[in-house]
Structures are given as C-alpha cells and as structure tokens.
Amino acid sequence: MPHILIVDDDENACAALAEIVAMEGFTSATAGTLREARLQIGWRMPEAIVADLRLPDGNGMELFEEVGASGVEVILTTGYASVESAVEALRAGATDYLVKPINVARLQTVLKRLATTGELRAEIHSLRGELRRYGRFGRLMGSSEVMQAVYDQLARVAPTEATVLLIGESGTGKELAAQTVHELSARRRQPFLAVNCGAISPTLIESEMFGHERGSFTGADRQHKGYFERADGGTLFLDEITEMPAELQVKLLRVLETGTFMRVGTNRECHADVRVLAATNRNPEEAVAEGKLRADLFHRLNVFPVELPPLRARGDDVIQIANMMLDQLNAEQGLQRRFAPNVLDSLRLHAWPGNVRELRNFVQRAFIMADDDLITEVQVPLQVAATQAPGAAVVSVPVGMSLADADRQLIFATLEQCAGVKKHAAEILGISLKTLYNRLEDYAARGELPEWLRASRNDSGPSATG
Q1: Could you give the CA distance from residue 345 to residue 206 in angstroms, rounded to a whole number?
Q2: Same domain, 164 and 261
Q3: C-alpha distance from residue 402 to each of 121, 292, 310, 397, 411 (Å)
Q4: Which residue among 259, 281, 307 closes a domain?
Q5: Distance of alpha carbon 218 from alpha carbon 143, whole angstroms
Q6: Radius of gyration of the chain from Cα atoms?
Q7: Of the candidates 307, 313, 308, 311, the residue with the CA atom closest to the CA atom of residue 321
Q8: Which has fewest Cβ within 10 Å: 36, 137, 331, 349?
Q9: 142 with 258, same domain?
Q10: How, if at all, do strands 235-239 and 275-280 pair?
C-alpha cells in the first residue's frame, strides 16, 4: 500500500490530511518539523510527501535534499502563497503546490494521480529504452543527441503537474511535444486541447478561452463552454502564447494561480482542473521586453522550459523523418517509392527554415510528382536552396543585432522575394498567415514598414498580396 508522509506543525491540519489520505487508500505518517520528517524518511521512504512550506525549523523544500533522485513525489502546501514561491517550488521539483485552506477535491485528484505514478514512470522508462533503439519518443522522432536531451527533459516533467513552456522555431514539433507530455501524464485519458492564440480574433478570444453566457453580447444565443471548461481534468496547450492580448494574459495568470475563472457575462466563478502547456516561436525574454508577454505570466509559465531544436541542428534525423513520412504515404497508396541517394544528400544539406513542416510538404510534393518508384532531385527541387540562389535576396545579420530586428529583416526580405504574396511568404517562414499579418500590423503601427510594402498595402490591399 502506498505510504505518504505529512509534514505540518499544525496538528489539526495533519489529522485532516491523514484522514483524506486514508480515504484514498494510502497509509500515512506525520511530522511537525523538518527534523521529525527526516527521521520518518529514515525509518520508511514514502511514495509521496505532503509538506508545509513554512516549518518551525526551516523550509519544506529542504526535504528535496532528503529524497534526492528516489522518485518520491513532493506536494507543498502554504498559507502564504505567491507567484514567486509557487515558481520556486515547482522548479525545485514539487509535484504540486496547494494553497491553504486546501481544496479537498484538488488534493484528492492529486492523490489519485500519485496512485498511477509508478505505472507512468515504468511506461516512460520503457519508452526511453525504445527511443534509444528506434529514435522515437511518444509522438516525436529522431536519434540525434539534441533530441535525446529533449526526450530526457520530457520524460522527467511529463508525470508531474508542472507547467511547461515549449520554445522553438515554427515547425519544430512543439505541439507533438505537448501531446507527448499529455500522453505520458496521469491526465492521458482526459481531453487534450490545442489552441493557437494567434489564430483567434482578439474580440473573441476571451469567450473562446473562458466561455460566455447566453445574451452576454450580440450573437450569444446560447451558453458556450470555453477551452478551460472543455479541457477539465486534462491538458490545455496554448500555442503562440505571445500573440494573446495583454488584458487576457492577466486573466490567464489568475486561472493558473487559482484554478478559477468567469465566463463572459457572469460574475460566478467556475473551476477547472487543467494542466497548461504553452509554446512560442519567439525568444520569450525578448517578448517580455517588447511588451508582447507579461513578465509575471512568463515567470509562471516558465516553470519547466524545453527548447525544441531546429531541424538543421539534428543531423541525420532529417533522413529518418523523411523516410517515415514516405513510408506513411506508401502505406496509404499501396506503393513502394523511395528517395534516390542524391536526394537524401540534398536533404542533409538543406537549411529547412520551415523545419519539419517544410519537410512534410517536400515529401508530399515529391511523392505526387514521382514518375516511378525512385524519387529524384530533378523531379522535385527544394523550394529554398541550401546555398544562395542566383538573384535571391541576402539578409545581413550583424553580431549584436536583436532577434526582433533580425526577424523583421527576414520577414521583409522574404515578402520581397515572394513579390508581396503573404501566403507564400508565411509558408517559407514557417509561420501562420495570421501571425504574419499580426507582425506586419505591429511594424506598421511603429512606422517600420519599408516604402514598397507601405505602397503595396495602400494600393492593393490584402486581396492582392495574400
């Protein structure tokens, strides 16, 4: 029977927690100080510890040193909650962070998840063995060292309740990484919802996130449940988090801290038990500096950052992924097409600015264009050459230039190369058309658009340029 150590200097709190723990099928021991807790751990190593943050002889986080890398889950409780203490606790390795008076339903949910932790860790251990052999981990693929490091990070954080911030260029697989985290967590039988914050109208995003009541605005002819309610018990993936309006970021921070929110058109609080995973293709610290991401929200999301490497940094992974995509198409169509050796060499050399998304488009085009079972480079040239093409624009990025300035130059150069066709430029850049429009609106508001692009916007409008 799983054993839990309860550490709190309030005897009544200890007794209440022990009763809840017993109802969930755990045995328990109690301690009122760090010294007593260390003695209890010496007598019997628990499967989990529920400890107050403030104890008479120290801080509950000191118990992390006692359990080390043994896999013991630590749940911290406190009557003096703050964003800083929550972030510090979760970064230190806490499974959860509960504010007093403790929400019994939430604690019971956490305990139910703890009961499956052993099963989850065994599954992840098996998956890690599988990835060493076949270069796969959940929904992700690749055998390179940089991806092995990513797999190790995801394996550590998946069974916990920590918020994860996925950072990487567009097309690097951030949503696949988020799905992998969900599927290796105790929430895997509950919903996984992915939301692109840059693809929802700013006037509707609050309603989409938190829902609305009937009659709350024109056209609201029925009650609508938002993403948080629909993801209750599961995982909500917020992609392009820096595209979320600032006023909504405040409300998101409140949900992350309290688990409560209000639908548009009501003052009644709703509760949702949701694990949030977020992603951005920007440098988040620069997004904070530019006012695109609130600093307090960034620190709350950045509990466990994971950086997804670009495809050009993953060596022969590009060959493995391309062959896997080709195998899927062959299976669907009952064919046996394969890449010629010179095509594989070109795949290795190409820079892949659109990353895995660009590679998937290339494989699909190559499959369609092939005249026989051998796909040759002549039949399907890469859209963007690995080396400088004649007449192509050159973007100079001097050392010391900010990423924001480099992004702006690259966007303008790509648009110019595409004759102002925004849809084509967005595909090459590996970003959504909505994101490209948002960036251009920002540049226009700051007076940073080049003359030719201003003229294009004024003369022809969006229909002529994408």
Answers
A1: 48
A2: yes
A3: 41, 15, 19, 9, 14
A4: 307
A5: 53
A6: 25
A7: 311
A8: 331
A9: yes
A10: parallel
Residue among 344, 384, 381 at smallest CA distance from 365: 381
Which residue has tokens 């063995």? 129
Q: Which residue has the tokens 């998946």?
A: 158
The domain of 63 spans: 3-115
Structural domain count of the chain: 4
Distance, CA of 449 to CA of 440 (rounded, Å)? 8
Residue in 323, 341, 346, 338 with CA at minimum distance from that of residue 374? 338
Output the domain CATH number for residue 19: 3.40.50.2300
Q: Could you list the pLDDT tens digit for every one of the 466 residues in the chain?
A: 678 999 999 999 999 999 998 888 888 999 999 999 998 888 888 888 999 988 999 888 888 878 765 567 888 888 876 656 666 776 677 777 788 888 888 788 777 777 665 555 555 555 556 555 667 888 898 988 899 889 988 888 888 888 999 999 999 999 999 999 998 888 888 999 999 988 887 777 888 888 877 766 666 667 778 888 899 999 999 999 999 888 889 888 888 888 888 887 777 888 888 999 999 999 999 999 999 999 999 998 998 899 999 998 998 999 999 999 999 999 999 999 999 998 898 888 888 888 999 999 999 988 988 888 999 875 555 654 333 444 445 556 566 667 777 788 888 888 877 767 787 788 777 788 888 888 888 888 888 888 777 765 554 444 344 4
Which residue type is seen at 115?
A
From first CA to last CA, the distance across the chain in angstroms is 62
CB-based burial label for 135 (10 Å; 0-12, 13-18, 19+):
buried
In-domain check, residue 410: yes
**What's the number of CA atoms in the CB half-sphere (13 Å) around residue 64?**
15
Residue 132, domain member (yes or no) = yes
Residue with token string 């499967």: 47
Q: Which two tokens stand for residue 283?
A: 């440098």
Determine the Cα–Cα distance for residues 379 and 394; give it in Å rounded to an integer.
27
Distance CA 329, CA 349 (A): 24
